[in-house]
Amino acid sequence: MFVVDSTVEVPEHKAEELINIYIKRSRLVDQAEGFISFQLLQKERKPGELTVHLEWESKSAYLKWARSDQFKKIHELERQYPDQELQGIVPKVSKYAVVAQ
User: Fold this and answer.
1) Which of 42, 71, 78, 99 has the smallest CB count inside 10 Å?
2) CA pair distance 4, 90, nearest whole angstrom
3) b/e for 9-30, b at 16 or more Cβ within 10 A?
C-alpha cells in the first residue's frame, strides 16, 4: 500500500469553507485504478490545518493517477478558487510506503 498526504494551513475562519469544498469534491480520484480511499483530516488542536489522506494499492497506481489528465483537471480547478486566500495555498505533500499493518 502507498499513502499520500497533502497538508495545508488556512486561517481558522477559512477551514469550514475548505472542508465544504472537499465535501463537494469531483470524486474523479475515486475512479482511478488502484485507488483505495480518501479522507480529509482536520488537526484537533489546530483547526486550520487540514490534510488530504489518500490510500493507493501501490506507488505505481498513484504515479499513474498523478500523471493523468483527470489529476491535471482537478488541480487546475484548485488554482481557480474564487477565494484568493485559498487559491494561493501550496500543500506540503508527504508520500509513504506502508511497511507493516
Assistant:
1) 99
2) 15
3) ebeeebbeebeeeeeeeeebbe
pTM for the model stands at: 0.88
pLDDT one-digit tens code per residue, 24-70: 888 889 999 999 999 999 999 999 999 999 999 999 999 999 999 98
- How is residue 70 written as a grid cell? 483527470
Domains and CATH numbers, the chain: 2-97 (3.30.70.100)
Q: What is the 3-state secondary structure (H, E, C) of the chain?
A: CEEEEEEEECCHHHHHHHHHHHHCCCCCHHHCCCEEEEEEEECCCCCCEEEEEEEECCHHHHHHHHCCHHHHHHHHHHCCCCCHHHHCCCCEEEEEECCCC
